[in-house]
Amino acid sequence: MHRSDDIANLFNRFGGSVESYREIEPSYDYIEEAVELFNPDMSTAQPACEIPAPEPLAASSAPQPAEPSSVISSSSMAQVGSTPLSRLLLEIEQQRGGVAAEHPVEQGAPRLKAKVIVVVSAKGGVGRSTLAAALACAIKRAGGRTLALDLDPQNALCLHLGGSEDWPGIAASDSADEDWQPLVRKGFAGSRCLAYGVASGPLRRTVEQRLENDRFWLARHLAHLALDEQDTVVIDTPPGATVYLAQALEIADVVLGVTLADAAAYTSLNQLDRLLAPYLQRESPAQYKVVINQLDTSRQFSLDLCEVLKKRTGQQLLGVIRQDHFISEALAYDRNPLAHTPSTRGCQDVLDLTGSLCELLMYGTQESSLS
């Protein structure tokens, strides 16, 4: 049966007329036009810019709703695609809380006028904090001040300078812009001290996370102290690779590695070299020097190992400090070991080392008396 007969029977069943039926013919104009636009083999293809624009709506047509502000343009999507996910999530959180999103501005390290000495070691127990305190007492640059800064959570540096563990410390500072000036305390021999402070486990982890996220946290704080060219900052750091060491090395003028004349300390020098290598290979690196501390001259093994260390370090060796019980006992008696008269041998070694350090800070060289 032909299709038209089916349609006629259908209309008769519902009381209609077949004459009112009009079959809709399919139109392929749009498809053909699309083929012409995107088929490179057709020579009659028309450029996309010549596609006629749709007829404007008549005045009687219903007004179109305004484009919602949440619609993202192609340029906006490109920008979103190049933005880190962490920043996008932060913006969403800030918008949800009704706070305008702020984009962090990358800032370089503030330039410090003061000279910075960073005391480091690969292992503990080498007398690093004791030496840092002694240097803070001994360094007297003309017209300048000396600031001892404790970046070691053990919070021991202030004790070597006549202070107390109750001194307020930098660990409790709330922000990168907080002024440290009210935290500065007077130490032995006219020195100044910034303690780390007593910090619980959670507070310490908070501080370390802040330092991890803010490369120039320490530099900005010290810049707020208005130190000048004649001032000196001596920084005590924890042993090994820590975020505290990384902060200090960013601003160091001299890195002072402390070691002992024993087998374990000799082995750890290689570890210290690897630790400092990324910072000492920069375009304008700090000067790296080594101090052999607490040399026991009563033991031939210590003297022999000291000679091995001298050859190992070469021109990096700044000085040797002989073992001196007066220095080690000074903490127990709450006294400045360098104030003893006449000076003991270890104290004299510290004073000689201080002279070499000051010359190094002023001229970039020092005369070695160890050869």
TrEMBL record:
Bias kind Low complexity: ranges: 56-76
Highest taxon, organism lineage: Bacteria
Region feature (Disordered): 54-77
InterPro entries: Cellulose_synthase_operon_BcsQ (IPR017746), DNA_Partitioning_ATPase (IPR050678), P-loop_NTPase (IPR027417)
Name under which the protein is recorded: Putative Cellulose synthase
Organism: Pseudomonas batumici
Phylogenetic classification of the source organism: Bacteria, Pseudomonadati, Pseudomonadota, Gammaproteobacteria, Pseudomonadales
